[in-house]
Here is the input.
Amino acid sequence: MEELNGKIALITGASRGIGRAIAYELAKKGAKVIINYKGSEEKAKSLAQEIEKMGKKAYLARFDVANSQEVRNEIKKIEKNIGNIQILINNAGIVRDSLLLKMKEEDWDKVIKTNLYSIFYVTQTVLPMMIKERWGRIINISSVVAFTGNPGQTNYAAAKAGIIGFSKALALEVAGRNITVNVIAPGYIETDMTAGLPEKVKEAFLQQIPLKRAGLPEEVAYLAAFLASEKANYITGCVFHINGGLFRD
Here is the structure.
């Protein structure tokens, strides 16, 4: 059943990992997906081809979410050439891990800009389109570390916690416009980002997870697709944990 038939969805950081899985799932549900990427052009093109093989629509949008001018220029092109964006998945993110005592200012700035400022840039630019449509879904990807913390990730945890405050405030601002804003906070998910961790670190993570396994990007994507659908009309300002029981509130 194509629950998102004809909807236009922008997914940032969609060339790999969670973003890729979400783009694919939304396309399966009938959405026209816009695959944002910065450097992984080959992977972005590969995803677009996979989606088109299903008989669905996919478009590539290369821009740096941490560059406000690039964001505004490229999203305006999307509006002109494809149409109003109705579903926005703010997923793009990076890590630059270091203990705070040794953290370089540039690593703090880069993570905060890419993971938090980007949500301001992209959402502010897309929001007028949703208001025109009188319908919108904004889904922001946070992290379990926004709640638990993690040594060496003060920058990442601060950015991901900021996403939650941003989302709760925006949900109140736009509810009267038939626009919902929700957050997904994944735990340990099998992605390129986690694949590079040492085996001992991976094993330590798994020991803390009650389900004793890592999550799959597709499992996050199923939740995102539900929140983007009409079935989630009465859900806004909420945070959804998907972490195998690692954190429960």
